[in-house]
Amino acid sequence: MYSNGCRLSPIAGLGSCCRIGGSQPSAPERNGKTGSPGAYKLLKSVQGELARAQQENQLPDILVMSLQEQLRRIAALQEDIEALNRRVAAVLRQNQQMLAVQAIPGVGPLTATAVVATVGDMSAFKSGRQFAAWLGLTPRQMGTGGKTQQHGISKQGDTYLRTLLISGARAVICRSTRSCWIDRLLQRRPLNVVVAAFANKMARTVWAVLAKGLPFDLVKWNPTETVSA
Question: Is residue 31 located within the same domain as residue 137?
Answer without folding.
Answer: no
